[in-house]
Fold this sequence. Notes:
Blueprint: H1 8-11, E1 16-20, E2 24-29, E3 37-40, E4 42-47, E5 53-57, E6 65-67, E7 69-70, E8 73-74, H2 77-91, E9 101-105, H3 112-124, E10 129-134, H4 135-142, E11 148-153, E12 158-164, E13 167-168, E14 174-176, H5 180-193, H6 201-211, H7 218-224, E15 231-234, E16 240-243, H8 246-249, H9 267-275, H10 280-287, E17 290-293, H11 302-310, E18 316-317, H12 325-334, E19 344-345, H13 346-352
Amino acid sequence: MTSSHTTASYKNLAAVVIDTGTGYSKCGLAGEDRTRAIVPTRVGRHLNSEGDKTPYYITEEAEAACSTLIRGVVTDWDALEVLWNHIFYSKLCVEPQELAVLVADSPVSPRTNREKVVELLFENFGVPAMQTVHQALLSLYAYGRTTGLVMGSGHGTSYVAPIITGELAPLNLYRLDVAGKDLSEYLSQLLLAGGQPPPKIDVLTHMKETCCYVTLDMVSELCQLESKNRLDFVLPDKHILSLGAERFRCPEALFKPDVLGLNQPSLPELAQISISQLEPHLQDQLLANVVLEGGTTLLNGFSERVQQELGSTANVLSLPHRAMAAWLGGSIMASLDSFQTLWLSRGEYQEEGPWAIYKYHL
């Protein structure tokens, strides 16, 4: 994993680190322990009088915006360029032509998307060097590890990735099409079923994040519900929504996807499947280092439920700021002396094209 260029060109450059998720993009400078900005991964697009779409614009309004990614995969590269332009020039106030850029690669993104990222950064932003690194590996770095079983759940997708000494295990990655966005939509359905109109999506998402929790025993929780106080949530217009069983029925979809009509294993089941064909000592090593990443894993009770389902031999690690784990791992990795030979340089790109990115198994 070495390249032909020396470290001298980039060692003294501050690098930009970008983790563009389905819901939010985290960005900042390598070597720092906090992001400089977090922006919604969405842009707006007006319709002109003829009904034709006009160029994109940056907006914070969820109702007026369209997503740049769907379930972790870029679906509109023009929109992504507008978003990254906003990040570089407005949020970070940097000139991308002067800085190397490390991009967290979505765990479910097609390999060919790496080529598109390479072209976008070199051709449209003129960066001197760049690199893409698997999000799961970056998350491990945030925990100070290079071996572990990464369990991620963000806005658009959930996944499990076993990584051994910095490399994805042979059986690669397992995904679950239940994540934060799906939970918000399910909460909306539960509210409607209970005769309560759900609020707008941003308010609904905030309600989910602050009021919902993962239970260790659904049957017991349902039996005790009547003896527990319901939780009132005050809407921006001062109306009140009263939440009961919706609070724990909503995130249960991560552990029982069939409630959403999906015939898929749960996240803990995917974890067990992902390591089942590895050597026993590797299974033990991975279960001893189960790391959580992504905003949806911040739901109260999530880590305890994962621990319960994986069993006593598992050790579930959960950083308080694990929603930013991939970005933080990128900040750490891009600032290491040992990483400086791993930048893909503009010269290499010009000589070999975007396929040069595949020389680096990151």
